[in-house]
Design goal:
Trna Endonuclease, Chain: A, domain 1, 2 domains, elongated, about 270 residues
């Protein structure tokens, strides 16, 4: 199920709902009656104010009546808008309900449980997609294993307390990840991002590099080169690379990072 598609529907519904509130509020203060438009013999547009007192023909509106003309035409527009916006929301609700109950990913649910293990789904649901990714073998970094002294809730050992906090955050949020998983660049060289994350809703991989000792010139230069290599391979900040930083004077703020990650991975989507 395409997350961006569902999110776009939700965003559109919210936009329409906000606009409907504005239109309904404006209608409460709209003047009585409506505008009737006609053309005279010279082709000029003329407006008439139609009310219960004037009858169908209405009262001619001269140039001085422009504010009232504007308000009455806005009133007419508001009525049309409310009708169309309400209908669009109904359609969006139907689409969201359909996707929730009848999406193609749920086809296997119509088969008896004993039969499901024999099929090869064309589109995996989220659970199967995660299980498939987690079952794949991968090569982890063997660089200085003695430095991996911090245990995570997922069961691996990481190199710093900050990485432990980040790993446990992903585990707690239900975001599948691999620690220091081998990534082969276009030129054949291997890199080992701190975290390789699975964005389940958008069906993509995101990399996370944590810069932990930025005061160190050699460390900073080494990581800038790594980021340049990533960019040449289509991995860059704002697309599929998440970066966090800390120094002696600016420690890791896991609370703010958690908020950003929740937003990025759609953990607030309902």
């Amino acid at each position: 199920m395409n997350y961006d598609y569902l999110q776009a529907l939700q965003n559109r519904k919210q936009e329409l709902s906000n606009a409907i509130k504005c239109a309904e509020a404006d209608l409460k203060h709209a003047p009585e009656g409506r505008i009737r438009a006609s053309q005279n013999g010279n082709g000029f547009q003329q407006f008439y104010h139609v009310t219960s007192k004037t009858g169908f023909s209405g009262k001619y509106m001269n140039a001085k009546s422009k504010p009232l003309v504007t308000a009455l035409i806005q009133k007419e527009y508001d009525g049309v808008f409310l009708q169309r916006a309400g209908k669009e929301i109904d359609i969006i609700d139907d689409l969201l309900d359909f996707q929730n109950k009848w999406s193609a990913e749920k086809s296997a649910e119509e088969l008896h449980k004993s039969k499901r293990k024999y099929i090869s789904p064309y589109i995996l649901d989220e659970k199967a997609y995660v299980e498939s990714w987690q079952s794949e073998s991968f090569i982890a970094s063997t660089y200085k294993p003695e430095e991996k002294i911090y245990p995570t809730n997922q069961g691996e050992m990481v190199r710093s307390k900050s990485e432990e906090l980040l790993a446990d955050m992903y585990y707690d949020l239900g975001i599948p990840y691999r620690y220091e998983c081998k990534l082969v660049l276009k030129d054949g060289r291997a890199k080992y991002p701190d975290f390789t994350l699975l964005d389940v809703k958008r069906r993509r991989v995101i990399y996370h590099e944590h810069m932990g000792i930025l005061e160190d010139d050699e460390y900073r230069a080494k990581n800038l080169i790594k980021l340049n290599d990533y960019s040449k391979n289509g991995i860059y900040f704002g697309k599929n690379l998440l970066m966090t930083f800390e120094t002696e004077y600016c420690p890791l703020n896991i609370k703010d990072i958690r908020e950003n990650v929740m937003e990025m991975f759609g953990k607030r989507f309902r």
